[in-house]
Amino acid sequence: MTEPSRFPDVMLLAAGLGTRLRPITDSIPKPLVPVAGVPLIERVMDNARAEGARRFVANAHYRADQLLAHFGGLLKVSREDELLDTGGGVKRALPMLLSDPILVMNTDAFWPAGSDTPLARMLARFDERTDMVLLCVHPRDAAGFARSHDFCLSPHGTITRDTGAPVIYGGVALMGKALFNNTPDGAFSLNHLFEQCLERESLYGVALNAPWFHVGDAAGLATAEARLVAPAAP
């Protein structure tokens, strides 16, 4: 990082249409959908704030005015007239992000407040040999996720296609800005950067040691709410 003692700036991916959460998202953007009374984006920000995050930037497209009104100017917003996908959205917002590396967080996945501190482990894992560190989730800890896994996590912390424990991408990536140097100016997915880092064997992962909730559809929302409000076991 340009300032070693500074926690990275956080880029919140909040521009999606949220079509799988209709009809809820017919009237509000997906990041503002409440989960047990707390908007999704606030739960994600709480995860980051708990470990030291202070500066946030969000991209916005669908019902962007509602997102702006929700934060009342307390959050920098990169407004997209046309959707730029995950990679294009981050690249557009880079001038607003002052740290290097940066944290990129999806706004539809989170872990219960106070249950783990994975961002500190991600920061500790990032060094000159590392292009990117991803938050990984063991399938047994995941709710609201349909696929079996995304990658494998080796005992040495490297992410591979087929060596190590099967893991899910947990929606948080720590990355240097230089990764965007040769990327398109329009829409593109962060998945392209993941693949490039995989090929260079410079993609690392840190496992979450907590339950993980993905709120991608109505079933995922219902599961998250049920588990969050369930009484603790004696």
Mean pLDDT: 90
Give me the Rg, rounded: 17 Å
Q: Count the helices. How many? A: 6
Strand content: 15-25%
Please write the string of helix (H) and strand (E) elements. Answer: EEEHEHEHEEHEEEEEHEEH
Total count of strands: 14
- What is the terminal separation in angstroms? 44 Å
**Spans of at least 5 consecutive residues with low confidence:** none
Major pleated sheet: 9 strands, mixed
Helix content: 10-25%
Bulk shape = globular
Q: Which structural class do you get from the secondary structure elements?
A: alpha/beta
Characterize this entry briefly:
The protein has 234 residues and is of the alpha/beta class. The protein has 6 helices and 14 strands.
What does this structure look like?
There is one protein chain. With 234 residues, the protein is of the alpha/beta class. It contains six helices and 14 strands. The strands form three sheets. Strands 1, 4, 5, 6, 8, 10, 11, 12 and 13 form a nine-stranded mixed β-sheet that branches. A three-stranded mixed β-sheet has the order 7-14-9. It has a two-stranded antiparallel ribbon with strand order 2-3. β2 and β3 form a beta hairpin. α3 packs across α5. The N and C termini lie far apart (44 Å). The model has no long low-confidence stretch (mean pLDDT 90).
Spell out the key features of this protein.
alpha/beta, three-stranded mixed β-sheet, 6 helices, 25% helix, 14 strands, 234 residues, nine-stranded mixed β-sheet, 24% strand, globular
